[in-house]
Amino acid sequence: ARVCWSGCVEVESNTEAVLGQGFKLGCISCKLRREVEATSSVEWYFKSKEDADLSLFKDRLVWNGSKKTTDLLDGSVFILNISFDDAGLYKCYVERTLYYEHYEFHTNASKFVKLTVVPTVNRELTSIIGEVMMYVANIGLTFWLLVEMVYCYRKIAAAGEEALRENA
C-alpha cells in the first residue's frame, strides 16, 4: 500500500502588522485522520529581539481559533492594539492526543511566525498592478461602449433615411 498524505492545508500566517491595529496570528494544525477522536491544546510563546528565550504570551490576546470542540485544528489568536514592542518571534505549540480503540497516541507540533510591525500599511506590487489594470479595463470598456453606441445610432439613422426615401 502507498503512503497517503493528509488533505488539510496549513495556511501561513501573515508576518507584517500595522501599528495600533489588531493582528491575527495564524496557527493551523491538521491531523491525518479526521474520523479519529482527539483532544488538543495550544500555547503561544513570544521572543523579542532583546530576549534570549521564548516566554508564554498572554497579553492582549483574543482567541480566534476553533470553537466548541476539544480538538483545536485552528489555534489562531488575535493581538489587540499592536505596538512596536510586539515585533519578534512567535511560537505556536500544539499538543494533540489521538484516541484509538486500544491506545492513545500523543503528538505535538510547533509553528514559528516572525512578526514585523510597520507604522502604515505597505501595499504589495500585485495590489497596485491590479488596481491600475482595473482602471484601464474600465476606461477601455467605456470607450468600447461609446463606439458601439455611435455605430448603432448611425445604423439606425441610415435605416430611417432609407425608409423615408422608399416612402417618398
UniProtKB/TrEMBL annotation:
InterPro entries on file: Ig-like_dom, Ig-like_dom_sf, Ig-like_fold, Ig_V-set, Na_channel_b1/b3
Gene3D superfamilies, sorted: Immunoglobulins (2.60.40.10)
Stretches assigned to the Ig-like domain: 1-116
Membrane topology listed for this record: Single-pass type I membrane protein
Locations listed in the record: Cell membrane; Cell projection, Axon; Perikaryon
Parts of the chain that traverse the membrane: 132-153
Superkingdom of this protein's organism: Eukaryota
Keywords: Cell membrane, Cell projection, Disulfide bond, Glycoprotein, Immunoglobulin domain, Ion transport, Membrane, Signal, Sodium, Sodium transport, Transmembrane, Transmembrane helix, Transport
UniProt-listed Pfam families: V-set (PF07686)
Family: Belongs to the sodium channel auxiliary subunit SCN1B (TC 8.A.17) family.
Described purpose of this protein according to its UniProt entry: Regulatory subunit of multiple voltage-gated sodium (Nav) channels directly mediating the depolarization of excitable membranes. Navs, also called VGSCs (voltage-gated sodium channels) or VDSCs (voltage-dependent sodium channels), operate by switching between closed and open conformations depending on the voltage difference across the membrane. In the open conformation they allow Na(+) ions to selectively pass through the pore, along their electrochemical gradient.
Protein name: Sodium channel regulatory subunit beta-1
Organism name: Polyodon spathula
Lineage, top ranks: Eukaryota, Metazoa, Chordata, Craniata, Vertebrata
